[in-house]
Specification:
This protein is of the alpha/beta class. The protein has 29 helices and 42 strands. The strands form twelve sheets. Strands 12, 13, 14, 15, 16, 17 and 27 form a seven-stranded mixed beta sheet that branches. β31 and β32 form a beta hairpin. α6 runs antiparallel to α7, α22 crosses α23 and α26 runs antiparallel to α27. The protein starts with a helix and ends with a strand. The protein binds one RNA strand through α7, β13, β17, α11 and β36.
RNA sequence: GCCGUGGUGGCGGAAUUGGUAUACGCGUACGACUCAGAAUCGUAUCCCGCAAGGGUUGAGAGUUCGAAUCUCUCCCACGGCACCA
């Protein structure tokens, strides 16, 4: 009997539908599992073979859980508001509502061919007024709690989509949808206070069972940093800066304000800074130029620093009490921190570049520490450390470009001249003294101090760890005049004049390599922590430890800042949920009363964006004009709509109770289903997942939901590329339609192949040749029914149990590729045996049912089992049957495989050794020697070491 | 640049409390069936070598009886962020 897949698939799809086989209910008797796909945006393109991959995975998972007796929620719906749907409608001259309906019908038809176990009675659609009533309801709750507010701060505006966008809608500096560079535009906006939840969203990430890269992306996006706000006195007022490195304050040699800084235009206590300076026009011109630049233009200039000094005003460094200049520069962002920074060029790369460009002083206040890790002198942790000051003197030859190196005799070290600074002496004095004593040169002069570096190493002659704060000097010799040195000094080392190239190879300690680099390249910014230098009373302390103490001493305070911005929530477009607010001249922004929800999106002919910053809804006068719910006077409706992400920020809750018209979700159903146990999707690492977490936490706070996180586990979906390795797209003409694949190979082969392609999270290219292999497997499965006999086949027993274990565990952990592989291994063994017992075949069919639901249902019926296999119980395995009584044990000699022996599982080491020695290859490898050691791992290996 | 993830045959990939590296599938070659082809089935398939044997998991070192797996250094690919002080 041939395998007629298309009629089998059609037959069972119709029967399942007719019987409502996958209807879900809140069965309190059973343990629940909620398995969810990121619901699709029904685009006009229809599905390509990449889309169903995640749906197949959740389908396999949910089918297995159903067979295990769980109450399963596995729903599907449509995320249909937003720009793509509207743009599609504009292009095709249809109404978005109509376009969405068509697209959904097309998607559903395509999905129907794949045999999914969705409960379609729970289907939802974000554009359905019965649905978006609750999206509006959540907005009103946010408004009530002060978490939705109006603002007219400049926002990102896409000139092509003609709407404002949130930071999350940008791809770098361009609109994520259309690739147009965004501009800044001042518009009245609704903004959601997502920053209020930044800390909780960050902290709660740790407990989530999500892929690390997604958690990391969220951490990056939230961008929490701990720092200090420190006031700097400027004339009769002050400027507060934000810094994460208050420990470097002694090195702050100038101040920088962002061009947008408010103090430039209005002073806190008096005059605006702009009016107090001598070069007002110059500064104003710079500010104007900076504001006119798009972010793209700034990026195109690279990171080149520009800026202009405020002439006639200075700030006081609160640590050093020095007067320092103030600059306006666009490398400081107005939107982060306080819009003002203290610049520490020695310890910040940007400040360093700016200081170089403006020729500003660079003052080192932190010494970098080098811990010696190469011999000799490797630092020995745990042993006491002797801390002292020292000097490194780089002495230049009087004529040639060579420097003095010391080759030590009792240790294999090469160094510059060094010395310890003794009590009562300065480093400078020490340098001159050491030169006389160690080298005898008479006419040395200190040319400059290059910096300070810390070296932590083991001093071999002194047998002690040393932490040396080394002051680095460059020294010049006027001539070769020289006196004799005391013999014991001269005996310690040999003096060599070396070129810089030779020195780079010659110098042993890292601190001396560092000194050489300083000499050759000049200072480089060091952004790490270390010992403080040039920092008054804090000199010598560890910068990390002194950080907050120093903050307090200069009148600063510890603060936390985020990169995350509040969520710009208004869109000047038609196809979105109306924001349920009424503007009244007397009462301001007033909430639409709950009983008046939903505020329906009016049906109109003209829905093109206006481009003026006004929503197309503004033109619909009889919709806009209304009365104030508070005072009854004339009022107008808010005409902006919500962003695409609104409806998807809570849809997973609606699936729990999709037809409830008096609550978003009933407490009973929420308790039953929450949280989503497994959430599957790709891409939306930041936007959707961060918005949904935000709304969920808010709903938790107002007691609508009972869990603090919406998605307990997240499985990341790797995409499917076209056969040519590129992304599938209409433009490239490489799209593969699942309908065609199903017609050729059947839904079961399609499903099994997508699961077999590779690890679920991997991006892999489609292969028509490979799917043929999976189709062959199903053909052989079909033929396998001829091999069924009544009695179990003993030889297959361990494999049956291994396969039950393996496939079950692999489905749980989303390792579908190895589950399918195990099924292939099993079928290979069955064919080799030429027969399989009825019970064994029954178990095998059930294991495959989640992957290939149609063919297994048919074979199940032919086996004489009662409908439906998908309600049958998941097979159990017996650990006692996992292994056979004997096992293949590999014999190694000195770690090399020399053969293998078959041993009973309970064989002891003596037996194993005796058997192993019988192998000729083993005897040959031992060459007559008796093994001095035997490593025996029962069931695995016996290793003889001679 | 910073952070994250990974690197195994011609290809997708398997193997992790350290214990036979390359399972399973694709591709390829040869053979069978056939007038012939398609389909199907069988055999082979990491590299060097006639063989015995030796080598191999991005490179190099280390720990171990034994390393794809653990440690260190480096290289490369992918993803996120990026003038965020």
């Amino acid at each position: 009997m041939a395998y007629d897949r298309s009629s089998i698939e059609k037959k069972w799809q119709e029967r399942w539908e007719r019987d409502g086989l996958y209807r879900t209910n809140e069965d309190a008797e059973k343990e629940k599992v909620y398995v969810l796909d990121m619901f699709p945006y029904p685009s006009g393109e229809g599905l390509h073979v990449g889309h169903p991959k995640g749906y197949i995975a959740t389908d396999v998972f949910s089918r297995k859980k159903r067979m295990q007796g769980f109450s399963v929620l596995h729903p599907m719906g449509w995320d249909a508001f937003g720009l793509p749907a509207e743009n599609f409608a504009l292009k095709n001259k249809t109404h978005p509502r109509q376009a969405v309906e068509q697209n959904i019908a097309r998607f559903k038809a395509q999905l129907a061919h794949l045999g999914f176990d969705y409960d379609w009675t729970r289907e939802i659609n974000t554009t359905d007024p019965a649905y978006y009533k609750w999206t509006q309801w959540i907005f009103l709750k946010l408004f009530e709690q002060g978490l939705a507010y109006q603002s007219d701060e400049p926002i990102n505006w896409c000139p092509s989509c003609m709407t404002g966008l949130a930071n999350e809608d940008l791809d770098g500096n361009v609109c994520e949808r259309c690739g147009t560079p965004v501009i800044k535009k001042r518009l009245p906006q609704w903004v959601l206070k997502i920053t209020e939840y930044a800390d909780r969203m960050l902290d709660d990430l740790n407990a989530l069972n999500w892929p690390e890269h997604i958690k990391e992306a969220q951490r990056n996006w939230i961008g929490r940093s701990e720092g200090a706000e420190i006031p700097f006195v400027v004339g009769d007022g002050s400027v507060t800066v934000f810094t994460t490195r208050p420990d470097t304050i002694f090195g702050a040699t100038y101040l920088v304000l962002a061009p947008e800084h408010p103090l430039l235009r209005q002073g806190p206590t008096g005059q605006a800074l702009l009016e107090r300076i001598a070069n007002t026009r110059e500064v104003e011109a710079y500010i104007k130029a900076a504001e006119a630049k798009t972010e793209i233009e700034r990026g195109a200039e690279g990171k080149k620093k520009t800026g202009v000094k405020l002439e006639g005003v200075t700030a006081t460094n609160p640590a050093t009490k020095e007067e320092i200049p103030i600059y306006v520069a666009d490398y400081v962002l107005g939107s982060y921190g306080t819009g003002a920074i203290m610049a520490v060029p020695a310890h910040d790369e940007r400040d360093f570049e700016f200081a170089r460009a403006m020729d500003l002083p660079i003052r080192q206040v932190i010494a970098q520490r080098y811990t010696q890790t190469t011999q000799p002198g490797v630092y020995r942790p745990g042993e006491p450390i002797l801390e002292k000051n020292g000097v490194i003197a780089i002495i230049r030859h009087w004529k040639e470009k060579k420097y003095l190196g010391l080759k030590w005799k009792d240790v294999t070290w090469g160094t510059f001249l060094t010395g310890g600074v003794e009590e009562g002496m300065t480093p400078e004095e020490t340098v001159l003294k050491e030169i006389r004593e160690e080298t005898g040169y008479l006419h040395a002069r200190i040319a400059g101090k290059l910096g300070v570096v810390d070296g932590l190493f083991y001093h071999v002659p002194k047998q002690k760890n040393q932490l040396v704060h080394a002051h680095i000097f460059s020294v010049e010799l006027a001539d070769d005049a020289r006196e004799d040195v005391v013999p014991e000094e001269g005996a310690k080392h040999e003096l060599l004049w070396l070129t810089p190239d030779k020195l780079a190879k010659f110098l042993t300690p890292e601190t001396h390599q560092h000194s050489l680099r300083l000499l050759q390249n000049g200072p480089a910014p060091y952004t790490g922590t270390g010992s403080l230098v040039n920092s008054g009373e804090y000199t010598g302390r560890n910068s990390d430890e002194a950080k907050w103490e120093m903050t307090g001493a200069v009148g600063g305070k510890k603060v936390v800042r985020y990169k995350l911005r509040d969520w710009v929530f208004s869109r000047q477009r038609y196809w979105g949920e109306p924001i349920p607010i009424i503007h009244c001249e007397k009462d301001g922004a007033v909430a639409v009363p709950y009983e008046d929800l939903p505020v329906q999106l009016p049906d109109v002919d003209q829905y093109e964006p206006t481009g003026t910053g006004e929503s197309p809804l503004a033109a619909i006068h009889d919709w806009v004009n209304t009365s104030c719910p508070k005072c009854g006077g004339p009022a107008t409706r808010e005409t902006n709509t919500m962003p695409q992400w609104a409806g998807s920020s809570w849809y997973y809750l609606r699936f729990m109770d999709p037809h409830n018209d008096h609550e978003l979700v009933s407490a009973k159903n929420e308790k039953h289903w929450a949280p989503v146990d497994v959430y599957v999707g790709g891409d939306h690492a930041v936007r959707h997942l961060i918005y949904a977490r935000f709304w969920h936490k808010f709903l938790y706070d107002i007691a609508v939901v009972s869990t603090s996180e919406p998605f307990a586990r997240l499985e990341f979906l790797g995409f499917i590329l076209a056969e040519d390795g590129r992304k599938m797209s209409k433009r490239l003409g490489n799209v593969i339609n699942p309908d065609d694949v199903v017609a050729q190979y059947g839904a079961d082969a399609f499903r099994a192949y997508e699961m077999f392609m590779g690890p679920f999270e991997n991006t892999t290219a489609w292969s028509m040749a490979s799917i043929a292999g999976t189709a062959r497997f199903l053909e052989r499965l079909w033929a396998g029914q001829e091999l069924v006999v009544d009695a179990p086949v003993a030889a297959l027993d361990p494999l049956v149990h291994q396969t039950i274990k393996k496939i079950g565990e692999d489905i749980e952990t989303f390792k579908f590729n190895t589950a399918v592989s195990q099924a292939m291994i099993f079928l290979n063994a069955v064919e080799k045996e030429g027969k399989i017992g009825h019970e064994q075949w029954s178990a095998f069919l059930r294991l495959l049912a989640p992957f290939a639901p149609h063919i297994t249902e048919e074979l199940w019926e032919r086996l004489g089992e009662p409908y439906s296999i998908h309600l049958a119980s998941w097979p159990a395995y017996d650990p006692a049957h996992l292994v056979s009584d004997t096992a293949e044990v590999v014999v190694q000699v000195a770690g090399r495989k020399r053969g293998s022996i078959r041993l009973p599982n309970e064989a002891g080491e003596a037996d194993a050794l005796a058997e192993a020695l019988k192998l000729p290859a083993v005897a040959a490898a031992l060459a007559g020697k008796t093994p001095s050691r035997v490593v025996y791992v029962p069931g695995r290996i016996v290793n003889l070491v001679a």
